[in-house]
Design goal:
Distance between the termini of chain A: 68 Å
Protein name (chains A, B): AcrR family transcriptional regulator
GO molecular function (chains A, B): DNA-binding transcription factor activity; transcription cis-regulatory region binding
Radius of gyration of chain A: 19 Å
Number of strands of chain A: 0
Strand content of chain A: under 5%
Order of helices and strands of chain A: HHHHHHHHH
Largest interface: A-B, 51 and 52 residues
Number of domains of chain A: 2
CATH topology of the largest domain in chain A: Tetracycline Repressor, domain 2
Shape of chain A: elongated
CATH class of the largest domain in chain A: Mainly Alpha
CATH architecture of the largest domain in chain A: Orthogonal Bundle
Keywords (chains A, B): DNA-binding, Repressor, Transcription, Transcription regulation
Pfam families (chains A, B): TetR_C_6, TetR_N
Low-confidence stretches of chain A: none
Oligomer: homodimer
Helix content of chain A: over 70%
InterPro entries (chains A, B): BetI_C (IPR039538), DNA-bd_HTH_TetR-type_CS (IPR023772), Homeodomain-like_sf (IPR009057), HTH-type_TetR-like_transc_reg (IPR050109), HTH_TetR (IPR001647), Tet_transcr_reg_TetR-rel_C_sf (IPR036271)
């Protein structure tokens, strides 16, 4: 019986949704083909029809998570520092959904550091994120909102700040409620904006 | 036959060494009682005599890793900004040993986020680290090396920067060689030191 590509793609999306739910609840340590099948109310056999192994499952789930973030409506505000701020606010775990997504990303680091292919995928992801930040930094510099420091270094510093704040906020949500994350971000950006480096 | 506490402790240290080696090579996803036993050339049965389950193994290995870091010789330099810089240089993955240790910490986040006890341990660890940084920030402020901003916020920002730089350097060691990590840290500290926030 011929299979339709549309059905196949839809089923792969269903599987990815189940993968996200398992990851958000149990982390990568709890991600097994069986757990995902149970989450879907399907058999492990059906699952392996779409993904031959756990690694294929993980890679696909991370790619879809990337796409979901990229597909979010952009910020209509002005370019430069305001756009940079909006991008970072969007990434930080300030909502339950953003916290769940970040928890999946942070959890994926263990598996990724142990697997050269997944590690290369993550390295490329973070390089692209730095490139997007660098672009906003250069715009802010042209607008006179940021001093003319090396944009690569500033982008790496901003990305460091954001990743590290995410980790701390996931472990200590009471100490890092949304409003404190916003304040820390604003203070950090204000520090970067001061001339005299 | 009576067992000596000294032997027991020594064996637990041997086990922790094996746990670290497994973690550095395969991450938490690859950490099993069997893998640790194989690494030690021992039986799983012997291992369970010392650690009833994987969680006990993980908790003990992380505690010893903490102790190892705390036992390192302190920096004899002056207090304040120089001490803060030395602390952070010590943490960053600028040597193979520091990279291996950080890789274990980053890998542990997945397991820790999935387990309330491990998560509480990590939250307490990072709170203590922020407290140490806050102490150095206050000293630097008293010495006039840092402007009088909220020390809790500055400490959280510094910790964020360090954790995020660690993650990026682990995934992209070619982009973040030791000398670039040092330069990024120095530029970041110089930014914090500028008056006018």
């Amino acid at each position: 019986m011929p299979r339709h590509k549309g059905d196949h793609d839809a089923r792969r999306r269903d599987v990815s949704g189940a993968v996200w739910r398992v990851l958000a609840a149990h982390g990568f340590g709890g991600l097994t083909l069986r757990a995902v099948a149970t989450e879907m109310g399907a058999t492990t056999g059906l699952l392996t029809h779409y993904f031959p192994n756990k690694k294929a499952l993980v890679a696909h789930a991370l790619t879809l998570l990337d796409e979901r973030r990229a597909a979010r409506p952009g910020h209509a505000g002005p370019d430069g520092l305001a756009a940079l701020r909006a991008t970072l606010l969007d990434i930080l775990p300030r909502t339950p959904q953003a916290a769940a997504d970040n928890r999946i990303w942070v959890s994926s680091w263990d598996a990724a550091l142990a697997d050269p292919d997944l590690a290369a995928g993550h390295a490329a992801r973070y390089a692209r994120a730095r490139e997007r930040i660098r672009h906003q930094v250069r715009t802010a510099q042209r607008l006179g909102e940021l001093p003319p420091a090396d944009p690569d270094g500033v982008a790496a510093t901003i990305q460091s700040f954001a990743l590290g704040l995410i980790v701390q906020a996931l472990f200590s949500p009471e100490e890092f409620p949304p409003e404190r994350q916003t304040r820390l971000l604003d203070d950090f950006l204000a520090t970067l904006a001061v001339e005299g480096r």
